[in-house]
Design goal:
Blueprint: H1 3-18, H2 21-46, H3 48-96, H4 102-117, H5 264-273
Helix pairs in contact: 2-3, 3-4
Length: about 280
């Protein structure tokens, strides 16, 4: 057998071994064990007791290192996997964006709920199709919902605090006790929407459409309502104190303002022009 053939056989065997990580690790461990024990043999024979004490001391240090490194590796792996899952959920929402189908809606909501379980609430839902879905108790604090479609959705007690929902369609949705505090929902469509006890404090609702909406006991205090439509809306016990841009003429076609809280000037004007609205 020539040197060239021998070299090729050795290289082939090395390649085979390196393709098997477990076998490679065992071979390296055996080699290092033989090397370390061989170099340590004179110390074993010369002063075994003192040498053994030092070995035990090193062993304790090694155990501590393994524990710390193990915990660190576990944390890094778990955190890495978590970040990958979060990215996957967000990527799937992007994949279904502008896809107007029942499957897209339900899968998007599923990803939103998974993100919530990871304490993620700021989600990009621009132009997402979410009609006829169940979003009750979902937290979308700080999310971007501009031009998305929530029509006929069930979003009871959903948290929309500080969201951007400009031109968003909430028509015919069930959103009782939903929280829109500080939200930006100019031009949003709330036609025929159930908003009983909903919270709109300090929200921007300029030119939003509340036609035939159910706003009983809703809190619209200190919100911006310039150009908002309330035709046939029910505002029984609603709080409109401090609302900016609201006029008596905007409220003249509502179903009722019975027991609604209004600023004195608006209330006086309504009592003078449309007294029937303040009755039962």
């Amino acid at each position: 057998m020539g040197k060239k053939e021998l070299k090729e056989i050795i290289e082939e065997r090395v390649k085979e071994i390196t393709k098997k990580p477990l076998l490679t690790s065992v071979i390296v461990l055996v080699f290092l064990t033989i090397l370390v024990l061989g170099l340590s043999l004179p110390y074993y024979l010369d002063n075994f007791r003192d040498f053994f004490k030092e070995v035990l001391a090193e062993a304790h240090g090694m155990l501590f290192d393994i524990a710390v490194i193990g915990i660190l590796i576990y944390w890094l792996r778990e955190n890495g996997e978590k970040q990958l899952r979060i990215k996957m959920y967000k990527d799937e929402i992007d994949d279904f964006r502008q896809w107007e189908s029942e499957e897209a809606a339900f899968r998007t909501v599923g990803n939103i709920k998974r993100l919530n379980r990871h304490k993620i609430t700021e989600i990009n839902l621009v132009n997402c199709h979410l009609t006829k879905t169940n979003m009750s108790h979902v937290d979308l604090t700080g999310s971007n919902l501009n031009s998305s479609n929530f029509s006929h959705a069930n979003a009871i007690e959903c948290n929309f605090t500080g969201t951007r929902a400009n031109q968003t369609n909430f028509e015919n949705a069930k959103m009782n006790q939903a929280n829109f505090e500080g939200a930006f929902a100019s031009g949003a469509n709330f036609k025929d929407t159930f908003l009983i006890k909903a919270n709109f404090k300090n929200a921007f609702l300029i030119k939003s459409d509340f036609t035939n909406a159910y706003l009983m006991e809703a809190d619209l205090s200190n919100c911006h309502l310039t150009g908002a439509l309330f035709d046939e809306a029910s505002l029984y016990k609603a709080n409109l104190k401090g609302a900016e841009g609201i006029t008596a003429d905007q409220l003249k076609n509502v179903k009722t303002l019975y027991l609604a809280e209004l600023d004195d000037d608006i209330k006086s004007e309504i009592q003078e022009k449309y007294p029937e609205l303040l009755g039962k």
